Amino acid sequence: ALPRAVIFGKIEDFFAGIRDLDPRRFHRAAYALLHVYRSVPLPVWTDGPRSPIPSAEEMAFLKQELTTMEEQIISWDALFRISLTS
To answer: Which of 25, 28, 30, 56 could form a disulfide with 62 if both were Cys (CB 3.0 to 4.6 A apart)?
Structure first.
C-alpha cells in the first residue's frame, strides 16, 4: 500500500491512517513498516508473556520513527518529481 500511496500523492493520508489505528494495530503496523523499509528490528520478548498494549515509551518511539520515515519519503518523492520535470 505504501508504494501506491507515494505514486498517487497520498503519503500523508497513508501515515495518518496508520496513526489512527487502535494501539495494538498501530504497534503491529508501525513495526512492520519500520522493519521492512528501515530495518528496525522487531521486538523480542524473552521475559514471559507480554502486555497486549505497548508501553508509552514504545508508542512514542514508534510515532517518532514513523514521522521520520514519512518526512524522508515526502522529501525523496518531491526530489524525484522535480528531477522528472527538469
So the answer is: 30
